[in-house]
Write a structure and sequence with these properties.
Elements: H1 38-42, E1 48-52, E2 58-65, E3 68-75, E4 81-83, E5 94-96, E6 102-107, E7 116-121, E8 128-129, E9 138-142, E10 150-155, E11 164-169, E12 175-177, E13 185-190, E14 196-202, E15 207-212, E16 221-227, E17 232-237, E18 244-248, E19 256-261, E20 266-272, E21 279-285, E22 290-297, E23 301-305, H2 308-321, E24 325-331, E25 337-343, E26 350-355, E27 360-366, E28 379-385, E29 391-397, E30 410-414, H3 430-437, E31 441-446, H4 455-459, H5 468-482, E32 486-496, H6 498-509, E33 516-520, H7 526-531, H8 541-547, H9 555-560, E34 574-579, H10 587-599, E35 604-609, H11 619-637
Parallel strand pairs: 30-31, 30-32, 32-33, 33-34, 34-35
Antiparallel strand pairs: 1-2, 2-3, 3-4, 5-6, 6-7, 7-8, 9-10, 10-11, 11-12, 13-14, 14-15, 15-16, 17-18, 18-19, 19-20, 21-22, 22-23, 24-25, 25-26, 26-27, 28-29, 29-31
Length: about 650
Amino acid sequence: MKKLNLLFFASMIISIALLTGSCTNTGKAPEKAKLIPLEDFFKNPEQTRYQISPDGKYYSFLAPYETRMNVFVRERGKEEAIRLTSETDRDIPGYFWPNNEQILYIKDDGGNENYKLYGVNIDGSNPVCFTDFEDVRTQIIDDLPDIPDEVIIGLNKRNPQVFDPYRLNLKTGEMEMLAENPGTIVGWMFDHDGKLRIAYEITDGVNTSILYRETEKDDWKTVLTTSFKDNVSPYFFTFDNKNVIGTSNLERDKSVVVEFDIANGKEIKTLYENPDYDVEGVHYSRKRKVLTSASYTSWKRERYFFDEETRKIFERLNQDLGEYEIAITAYNKNEDVFIIRTYSDRSLGAYYLYDKNTDKLEKITDVSPWIDENEMANVTPVEYKSRDGLTIYGYLTLPKGYTMETAKDLPVVVNPHGGPWYRDGWGFNPEIQFLANRGYAVLQMNFRGSTGYGKKFWEESFKEWGRTMQNDITDGTNWLIEKGIADPDRIAIYGGSYGGYATLMGLVREPNLYAAGVDYVGVSNLFTFMKTIPPYWEPMLDMFYEMIGNPKTDSLMLREVSPVFHVDKIVSPLFIAQGANDPRVNKDESDQIVEAMKARGVDVEYLVKDNEGHGFRNEENRFDFYRAMEAFLAKHIK
């Protein structure tokens, strides 16, 4: 089960008619977009996260029950679905099939990210919480698809800073600790037989090691130690359980797919590389025991095929669905029945069932049928140069009816992403489409440090929070002004997490550039931020010091780039939103800046949700946030 990401979406309509701008260089106003209710962008999907049982007889999905996303299951060929869960306080963020009879899912309490693991039979019977421990976070390490009644989980029950691996018996609920984390292990890996063979260790805070053992009876030995800047990431064992397949950027800039001699810590051969982008995914057929594809992201996701059969499946799907991006999101154990998800920049897409034996492709459902893609805006890839010569890639979304040639003097929302070691991609983003529907152009940029562009571009961000990373954002804003697209008097900056930090620093460093700012769960004080990180991040604290700055040796720099110490430079109105239970960016980060702003008499709005964490998951809270943001932007830049 992959890492779960918090989706940043939400909203609802207010009774203000917001007009799109006019096209000044043709004398003809562009076609106005239909004003779409705010809730349509941000309410929960009708059905999503489709998966299929190992035997292919059932599929499952998440759908709303009393406005919360719950798990449903339906037998193939039948209309009626059974609701398996009845959560009413919080959405279920993720689930999976460990076997044909059972669903496992995770849920936290009020956004604290201390996930517990639950199970329920597919007829709704025998609900159980497997990890009902206070202040403990559950990780899914390996779902063991070839061992139906067991999964491997990680728990920080013994020590809140580190996770020990446990083998969980789903029939009895019994757990067996497989190894005691000495305090330095940050990841574990199992072979195809479910045996613990690899561990990832942070040796001295900044160097990382791969540990290996031939069998579970053998002692661990260190086979490779590198700086954390060099990355060897094993994905899975070869099918004879001897070597591993993964990605590596050792002695190169871009991550490539390699076969790795794990026992001796050496690369054997490069299987695929792209000269321009990091390869970020490698896929295989468990049944046929072959590599199938690798994936990377240019301006959108692209694939390289190792396997002709997989290539033919995608070619077949493209015959009917080629207008959209296509992803195979799930398949049965026999690998002949697939769940297909489509999407585009203007559509959340639909789910399909493809039966390879009959070559039948049938539509299951639209994700959000109330979204009319014809009313949505196009998301266009763009690029510009930073002031020190880097090429910065991004996306520009213009209100419907405008083009790059006809857009003039529009109100703009500059939207730096979170992370910051993450990247924006091409696809449907409800925030972006909502803002475009309200008449704003939206600029997203993959500033230095954004992932996927190689090691050097990533390292360019080290100790550059609020400095050259911020310059990249400013340079993108000025690029829009120079092209005549942005009205220089009507530009706002908005972001979440690191994007919230960049919002605050944008207002500090460029007080005359941004007319307003919206900070969503953003960092304001780098000293207190690093003191209040979750305990399970503490083994990586020395890495943070090297990437962000050391509070002792870099104190002057960190003070320079902590917005809370420079509120005297902020003159533009500010709106801040925060979850009270946020474990990553503590509520105090927002409290500090709000108090400092109010002390100076600067206009600041503050929205706190007591039952949320790092981003608002509950539907009604999303509505409140985006309703307030809509009114705030309309007041200050519309």
